[in-house]
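FORM 12-B: Structure-to-Sequence Request
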């Protein structure tokens, strides 16, 4: 048996990731997992998942947005969007109204409770992102967002 093989097999610091370290997708997955776990820690007591935060944020930034348009921009399939919106309505965070220009469609609005809820969530997310990204300058953060956005747009 080769000397040092057992040490390398049990010591995580000694394990080489030569190929994985060259793959962008590997780093994106690891980073995404880190952010998702941090998101859950930050907002778990609010009953807020990433998908719900995305919906509330989109409604906040686009009051009266059509339910279908919100789902489309967020990449949420129609049946899933219906159940997610129902959940937010049941929790008193949003209101769903029949659209004035299309009686078959719904417009979404934050309630007062929903507006307060999203602001609390956003404050916590920013605090946690500041912690996770503490080694990046403001310019580096903007560059990171720009690069990730380019990758996302190229893929879809």
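FORM 12-B RESPONSE
SEQUENCE OUT:
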């Amino acid at each position: 048996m080769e000397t040092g093989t057992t040490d390398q097999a049990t010591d995580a610091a000694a394990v080489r990731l030569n190929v994985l370290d060259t793959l962008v997708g590997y780093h994106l997955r690891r980073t995404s997992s880190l952010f998702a776990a941090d998101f859950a820690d930050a907002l778990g007591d609010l009953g807020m998942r990433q998908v719900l935060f995305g919906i509330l944020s989109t409604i906040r930034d686009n009051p009266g947005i059509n339910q279908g348009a919100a789902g489309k921009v967020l990449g949420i399939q129609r049946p899933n969007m219906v159940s997610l919106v129902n959940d937010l309505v049941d929790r008193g965070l949003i209101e769903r109204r029949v659209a004035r220009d299309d009686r078959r469609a719904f417009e979404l609005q934050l309630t007062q409770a929903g507006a307060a809820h999203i602001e609390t969530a956003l404050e916590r997310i920013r605090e946690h992102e500041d912690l996770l990204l503490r080694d990046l300058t403001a310019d580096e953060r903007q560059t990171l967002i720009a690069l990730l956005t380019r990758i996302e747009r190229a893929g879809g």
